[in-house]
């Protein structure tokens, strides 16, 4: 099994638990900053060098960016807010786009999830 693992150089990554493949563009993205005192940012991981080759900073307009990221088959990106931020256990989902040419744009989704899955949201998937 170890022969199949390739280790890249060390770099400061943020929350790579969010590493997600955009199936439309075949790019790997992750949330690279989630601290309250920083702009939200996502980074694209270069699969050859195993290092980020693009970082995009942006404002969310509604608190901090969550820790989870996923994409649907059409290339739409999704995240939800961190459970400790949620009032009364409500889940807040966001959908948008992440692009090296047009930047990052998200909007809150109207959805029917009334309760979060626990104290910390650890994943999101479609």
TrEMBL record:
This is Uncharacterized protein. It comes from Lactiplantibacillus plantarum subsp. plantarum.
């Amino acid at each position: 099994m170890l022969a199949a693992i390739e280790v890249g150089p060390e770099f400061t990554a943020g929350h790579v638990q969010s590493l997600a493949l955009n199936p439309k563009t075949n790019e790997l993205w992750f949330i690279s900053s989630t601290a309250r005192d920083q702009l939200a940012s996502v980074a694209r991981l270069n699969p050859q060098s195993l290092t980020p080759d693009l970082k995009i900073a942006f404002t969310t307009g509604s608190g901090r960016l969550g820790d989870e990221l996923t994409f649907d088959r059409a290339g739409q990106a999704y995240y939800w807010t961190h459970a400790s931020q949620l009032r009364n256990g409500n889940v807040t989902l966001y959908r948008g786009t992440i692009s090296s040419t047009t930047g990052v744009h998200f909007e809150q989704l109207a959805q029917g999830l009334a309760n979060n899955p626990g104290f910390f949201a650890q994943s999101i998937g479609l």
